[in-house]
């Protein structure tokens, strides 16, 4: 089994809750030379590979607000995953996103509160 991260296309075909998009700050290059400016870019990462608890995260499917949940120590603990904020953030993402906790099928919808 390959240790390489799953591609974006593979994630879209098989929704999982173990990867999310994280906003990463990168040094901006101009003609291959570093500058003093930075740019931000959304990057798909496995939750277990993310250090700490970043503030800028979003669902890779609906781009809505999520909360990261890391594996606990007990025997009933779940693996690393994310949960939609849903009503706490004023959205219906839990029911309308493919990776939502309450998704019952039907048409996938983008979040009404996109995290940019």
Structure description:
The chain has two helices and five strands. The chain has 116 residues and is mainly beta. Strands 2-1-3 form a three-stranded antiparallel β-sheet, with no helix packed on it. The protein has a two-stranded antiparallel sheet with strand order 4-5. The protein is globular. The model is unreliable at 1-13 (pLDDT under 50).
Layout: helices, strands, pairs:
Blueprint: H1 8-13, E1 19-30, E2 33-46, E3 57-58, E4 66-69, E5 81-84, H2 93-96
Antiparallel strand pairs: 1-2, 1-3, 4-5
Q: Report strand order across the widest sheet.
A: 2-1-3
Number of strands: 5
Derived structural class = mainly beta
CA-atom Rg in angstroms: 16 Å
Number of helices: 2
Q: Per DSSP, what share of the residues sits in E-state strands of 2 or more residues?
A: 25-35%
Helix content: under 10%
What is the approximate shape?
Answer: globular
Please outline the major beta sheet: 3 strands, antiparallel
What's the SSE pattern?
HEEEEEH
Q: Give the mean pLDDT.
A: 77
Uncertain segments are: 1-13
Separation of the first and last Cα atoms: 34 Å
């Amino acid at each position: 089994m390959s240790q390489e991260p799953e591609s974006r296309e593979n994630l879209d075909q098989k929704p999982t809750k173990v990867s999310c998009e994280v906003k990463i700050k990168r040094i901006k290059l101009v003609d291959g030379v570093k500058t003093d400016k930075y740019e931000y870019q959304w990057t798909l990462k496995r939750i277990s590979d993310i250090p700490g608890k970043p503030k800028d995260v979003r669902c890779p499917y609906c781009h809505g607000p999520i909360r990261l949940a890391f594996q606990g120590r007990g025997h009933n603990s779940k693996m690393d995953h994310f949960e939609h904020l849903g009503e706490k953030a004023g959205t219906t993402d839990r029911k309308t996103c493919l990776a939502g906790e309450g998704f019952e099928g039907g048409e996938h919808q983008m979040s009404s509160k996109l995290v940019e």
